[in-house]
Amino acid sequence: MLTDYSRIVVPYDHSELSKKALKMAMNLVKQDEKIELYVVMVIQPEIQLAYHYAVPIQDRREEQFKAIEPIREEINQELLKLPNKTRTFVLEGDPARTIIDFVRKNDADFIVMGSRGLSGLKELFLGSVSHYVVQKANCPVLIVK
């Protein structure tokens, strides 16, 4: 079924739908050991102010990276169950644009992602990140609900 794909990307934000998307992607890559699976987590940078709620921005940034490490380790443990080549990435930037840039730079040919993530704002059909990715991706995108 997936013989046309060699590299699948899963944007992951620890939401229930991103967990579901990761499980689906893992099931898909099991069909062919040659398919690589990349899990991408994006940390959004703070507004460029010297302090954010009385915490220096650099300290806040370090807190974000420290907070994501246990999640990354949890994902890595799950990925060990696969015979496929897998990697996790923690990137920084606007989530939607960072995901698209990553997909292009890494020649990914399939994206599996949740229909919405942890954002407090909800759009009518798709979350803003998934909507952007669907519109801008140069490869197929599977949206998990």
From TrEMBL:
Ranges where the UspA domain occurs: 5-145
Gene3D superfamilies (UniProt xref): HUPs
Highest taxon listed in the record's lineage: Bacteria
Database matches in Pfam families: Usp (PF00582)
Record InterPro entries: Rossmann-like_a/b/a_fold, Universal_stress_UspA, UspA
Recorded family membership: Belongs to the universal stress protein A family.
Protein name: Universal stress protein
